[in-house]
Amino acid sequence: VLDMLAAVQLPDPERIHGAYPHQISGGQRQRAMIAMALILGPEILIADEPTTALDVTTQAQILALIREMQRTRRMAVMFITHDFGVVAEIADRIAVMKDGKLVEQGSAHQVLDHPRHAYTIGLLAAVPNLAPAEPRALDAEAPVALRVEGLRKTYRGAGMFRTRSARTVHAVKDVTLAIRRGETLGIVGESGSGKSTLARCIARLIAPDAGTIRIGDIRFEALARRALRDARKRIQMVFQDPFGS
Q1: Reported confidence tier of residue 215, pLDDT bands at 50, 70, 90
Q2: Mean pLDDT of the chain
Q3: Beta strands 210-215 and 218-219, pairing class
Q4: Which of 25, 102, 171, 224 is deepest in the core (most CB within 10 A)?
Q5: With the CA atoms of 64, 69, 71 and 76 taken in that order, what torsion angle do they form, in degrees rounded to the nearest 10?
Q6: 234 neighbors 216 (Cβ within 8 angstroms)
Q7: 3-state class (DSSP) for residue 98
Q8: Model-level pTM?
Q9: H-type alpha helices, 39-189
Q10: How far is the C-alpha of 80 from the C-alpha of 58, rounded, in Å?
Q11: What is the dihedral of CA 109, 35, 190, 20, to 10 degrees?
């Protein structure tokens, strides 16, 4: 079990082996599920969006792991995904479905490079690339909607019944940023890099250890419970994993 947890690139396999689901990230839970499927050495693996919750580096590792196990165990794989990048990386053949029907199938080269069906052509045309959009004209004088200065959050915890040593995770370290009204700021990083903790601190779903959070002219991190309840309408959050959250 520990070897398989390590094979799916889970950090500290012994700790994760003894963890509850709420104690690990969504991407780590996804990798644990992949490990549970692969450890039985199946003849057929049906992978339904197995890399959706994973960052791109872990996604590449998982795809490499599935390919390696397929090579060593002669395993058949049905890989269900909406991500053409993943399809191009792993598939020998591609079948495209629409409204419950297979509208096109063929080799990966045929479908990706020479699509025939209009639906396939539309799907491929919609694949995003890394070319940035044309810059928008932003108002440099627009008021600051959010200002974060020196934000820090550390998690500390002991094992069950104190049988395992306490562990300290510095999830957010001295983060400072600002966003003006009408502007979009992208926060990018691997699973476990602190993105979600930063967002939860800003929304005051968890309390930061240090730093200031200003939503307009309100010191958000300093609000008492009743004042926070009234002010929270000014900031809302869409979760990556609503059930886990």
Answers
A1: very high
A2: 87
A3: antiparallel
A4: 171
A5: -100
A6: yes
A7: strand
A8: 0.72
A9: 56-73, 84-90, 108-113, 118-125
A10: 18
A11: 150
